[in-house]
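Here is one chain, start to finish.
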Amino acid sequence: MKRVSSARPMREIMALADKANQYIDEKKPWLIAKEEGKDKELHEVCSMGINLFRLLVAFLKPVLPVLAIMRKAFWNIGSQAWP
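Its structure:
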């Protein structure tokens, strides 16, 4: 039986995490929050950030199951289908 390496998928997940971090860094929600009339934009940026985190944790569930459990507890959600 051929063994499959987990290095490549992990590199790809980490590349996605880097892109998610770049998005948040470029949008700077901490600055948007200080501006009047930017509530909608702030909501959109924060929602995107939370959803990116949700997907990354789902991708990492096989190697970081405790993080997945903590995510479910934090959001008070039951088991979910992949992702």
